[in-house]
Amino acid sequence: MFPYMIGEDKGAFTAPFEYAIKCFAAKDPLAMSENSGAIFDPDQSIIQIKSLGQMLEIKYPEGDIVFNSSNHMPAWNWRWLILHYLSRADDAPVINKLISYRELENGNVNYTTILSKCINPLIKNLLPEPVEQIKAACLMLDASIEQGADVCAKIHLFPRFPLTIKLWLGDDEINGSANILFDASANHYLDTEAINEAAIMVSHFLIKQYELMHKKII
Fold it and tell me: Is residue 150 within 8 Å of residue 159, measured between CB atoms?
């Protein structure tokens, strides 16, 4: 785990978080695990899931989440997303067809937030940086580097929920740009509001990971 990944109790008692725990607790833990690509340990009543290269443990039915073999909790929005993912997962296959945020269910809602809190920060903080260093930061978040842009990183937020970040470097004539794309199966695993939060969080984590590795700023 990295320092920026560790959270506190901020947000843990808000109504949305309490609702997420309620939905999680109402589901069968074995079915949630099978539908989401997680693993359920019935002896400890713990679901284990891999996310951004980290193994996380979710206590059922309480919804408490810690890093594997640790007392540290992930950031509160990460915990909220995990509970949503487990509750909503329906075992739909990953299609490997990329779609934009606007192609999601009600994808025009909050699109400006994606631009201001996800895509624009990627442009501002990463486009001026060396490509190989950006790729190295992506790999630390369990990404696979693919073709299709100067940097094209498929980041595995959850076993069946990848996000793809694309960065195109600019030159003297064309400004650089960025985008974040989703698998066409995305809404089987998170609703669009949660996907909005997921995109913002992953963008923030990637920027912090780059700073941690190459700028010594946490």
Answer: no
Token look-up 């079915």 returns 31
Q: How far apart are CA 180 and CA 138, in angstroms?
A: 13
Residue ranges of E strands in 82-207: 98-99, 143-145, 151-158, 161-168, 177-183
β-pairing, 98-99 vs 65-67, is: unpaired
Coil, strand or helix: which one is 121?
A: helix
Q: Rg (Cα) of the chain, in Å, rounded?
A: 17
> What is d(CA 16, CA 22) in angstroms, rounded to the nearest whole number?
10
Measuring CA to CA, which residue among 52, 44, 60 is closest to residue 6?
52
Distance CA 59, CA 42 (A): 10
Per-residue model confidence as pLDDT tens digits over 50-78: 999 999 999 999 999 999 989 999 999 99
Angle, helices 131-139/192-214, rounded to nearest 10 degrees: 120
Beta carbons within 8 Å of 199's beta carbon, 6+ residues apart? 101, 114, 118, 163, 180
